Amino acid sequence: MVVGIGRGVLVSAVQQNEDLNEPQKQQAVKAINAFATWAESAQFTDPVLAQKAIGVVCQTARELKFASLDEVRALTFDQALAKGDIAFKGLKQVFELYGLSIDQTLDSVKAVLVSETGDQAKVKVSYTLLATPLEFESEMVRYQGRWYGADGLRKMQKEAAESAVAKAVAPAAKG
Question: What are 72-119's pLDDT values in tens digits?
Fold first, then answer.
């Protein structure tokens, strides 16, 4: 029942999200349904699996070697990446215990060029998430010799332009 309610809330949030286009919403709903189906069948209350999961969490915590939250806050970027790697590996192990293989999902990803014209391309990406085949198409743009998602690049360029305007206006407003 809880999973069903969660599914409904998430699907509703996706449908109301104005930042997503219709294909993105459909993709998100399919992924939510795949996770919900998995969550309904995962044996979270199995004492043997729970004991193994707790063991993985404890081992991961020992490997992180944090004595306090202040140590976490003091990490440099590179140190945080190294610790994040340890934490992510532990998380993957816990998910594996309950039948969700992140590696299997990542290994299933396939990208196929649909079309390319100049500095614009369309790529079809397919993958399998929890035995559910999913796919989407992505508009790509070549910018300064590298390929970026068109929507993401436009958003970053817009934010950079707005930031530049705000910085230019701020000194003028003080004068």
Answer: 999 999 999 999 999 999 999 999 999 999 999 999 999 999 999 999
| Measured distance CA(122)–CA(112) in Å, rounded | 9
CA distances from 133 to 11, 27, 39, 104, 108 (A): 18, 11, 17, 12, 9
pLDDT < 50 stretches in the chain: none
Residues 6+ apart with CB under 8 A from 125: 109, 110, 111, 112, 135, 136, 137, 138
Q: Which long-range contacts (CB under 8 A, 24 or more apart) does 17-24 make?
A: 23/136, 23/137, 24/136
Q: Are 112 and 58 in contact (CB under 8 A)?
A: no
HSE toward the beta carbon, residue 149, CA cutoff 13 A: 9
